[in-house]
Amino acid sequence: MTDIVQDRKLNDNPLISIVIPLYNEENNVQPLVERLAAVLNRAECSWELVFALDPSPDRTQQKIRELMDANYPIRLVVFSRRIGKPLSVLAGLDHCQGDACIIIDADLQDPPELIEQMIEKWRQGFEVVIPQRVSRKGENFLYLMAADIFYWLLGKIAEVEVPKNTGDFRLMDARVVREVRRFRERHGFLRGIVASAGFRTAIIPYYREPRFTGRTQIPLAGAFNIALDGIAPFSRIPVRIILALGLILLLLGGGAGFVWLLYSIFRGFSHLAPFIALGILGLLLSGIVVTSMGIIGEYLVRAYEEIRRRPLYIVDKIEETASLQRKLSPVTSPAE
């Protein structure tokens, strides 16, 4: 680790890539870029902004082009159709060229000013630097409660340790980025992927701000899908719970049937008792069966989507400003 620290200190002008997935963020793009420029210039390093743009009906793309005309070091990656935030993040990592990469949302809830501390931790030798939310202003109470339940459940059953109350906002060394690129998973839950990759990690607590403008672009159904993506690929526990429930129900059903049979032999059979017992048992078993099929279905659908080997995304076009320190070579463009 000492050698890593020395190498980073000798490189006085590293290139920092900032990957920004976005959709319908026309009012946030310019304030974000201005704050990022101020922070990165103070950090005394070269930098590039990699916008991973889901095709937006608003003027987000035009705003980015205006910033490119102003000679900000920008690489704009536009997809052929909307692919969602998780894949946009992975695509942005495919197209970044820096010695370290930072992922940040465009809504300014995650303060760009924290990047200075993240770079400092990286210079100290940490290969992953993850800001951890101490508070989350302006977010719905029910959403926050659901997030707490998700992280509690993930902490109990996941096979890798994912830090609680963290998002995609993080810094990764170029070596980590190379390893993360090898995880070509359609349901790309970055927090779990980075945890699976390992490497020395630092945590920085911070207070998350409300959105600068607009509203979140991730609907409730999308948040639920992200939660499933965080659980299913990184844990065998749900399937094993099904097996345990089946065994418990088998024992309970057999035991209850045996007790009922003995009771009825010695006390007499009621003409209603069997129907009541069968009705309750049938309702219970049908609920367990349907739930179990749903959990197994989640795993089967994900397995099916992976074995089809379709491209994770299709890039419509890539635009770069002349001020970029490292250009993306078409010969070595990332595999999709």
What does this entry look like structurally?
The chain is of the alpha/beta class. The chain folds into 2 domains: 2-217 and 311-320, Spore Coat Polysaccharide Biosynthesis Protein SpsA, Chain A (Alpha-Beta Complex), CATH 3.90.550.10; 237-307. 49% of the residues lie in helices and 16% in strands. The protein is built from 11 helices and 8 strands. The chain has helices at 2-10, 29-42, 60-69, 85-94, 115-123, 141-157, 174-181, 190-197, 220-231, 237-267, 273-307, and strands at 15-22, 46-53, 74-79, 100-103, 128-136, 170-173, 201-208, 315-320. An 8-stranded mixed β-sheet has the order 7-5-6-4-1-2-3-8. Strand 1, helix 2 and strand 2 form a beta-alpha-beta unit. It starts with a helix and ends in a 16-residue tail after the last strand. The model is unreliable at 1-7 (pLDDT under 50).
| Separate helix tally | 11
Specify the CATH architecture of the largest domain: Alpha-Beta Complex
Helix content: 40-55%
- How are the strands ordered across the major sheet? 7-5-6-4-1-2-3-8
**Structural class label:** alpha/beta
CATH superfamily of the largest domain: Spore Coat Polysaccharide Biosynthesis Protein SpsA, Chain A
- The general outline is elongated
Compute the CA-based radius of gyration: 25 Å
> Could you tell me the mean pLDDT?
77
- Name the CATH class of the largest domain: Alpha Beta
Give the terminus-to-terminus CA distance. 33 Å
Largest sheet: 8 strands, mixed
- Pick out the low-confidence regions: 1-7
Count of domains: 2
How many DSSP-defined strands? 8
